[in-house]
Amino acid sequence: MGKLPPSLRSAKFPITLLKNPPSIPPQLPQSPPPTIQHPHIPKKIPKKLKSSNTQSRNPPSITFNSPNLSEAKTLFNSLTKSSKSPPLDIKFCNSLLQSFSSISTLQDSISLVNHFVKTQPTFSPDRSTYHILLNQSCKLPNPSLSYVHQILNYMTTHNCPPNKDSIDIAVRALCSSGREEDAVELVKEFCHKNLPPDSYTYNFLIKQLCKNRTMSTVDNFIKEMKEFSDLKPDLVTHTIMIDNVCNGKNLREATRLLGVLIEEGFKPDCYVYNTIMKGYCMLSQGGEILGVYKKMQKEGVKPDLVTYNILIFGLSKSGRVKEARKFLDVMVEMGHFPDAVTYTSLMNGMCRQGDPLGALALLEEMDAKGCSPNSCTYNTLLHGLCKSRLLEKGIELYGVMKDGGMKLETGSYGTFVRALCRNGRIAEAYEVFDHAVESKSLTEVAAYSTLESTLKWLKNAKEHGLAAQQKNETDQGGAVSFLVLP
Amino acid sequence: MLPQRMKKAITENPKKHANLIELVNLPSTLREFMGQSQTSRLGCFMRVWSYIKANNLQDPNNKNVVNCDDKLKSILLGKHQVELAELPSLIKLHFPKQPK
Question: What is the homologous superfamily of the domain A233-392 according to CATH?
Answer without folding.
Answer: Tetratricopeptide repeat domain (1.25.40.10)
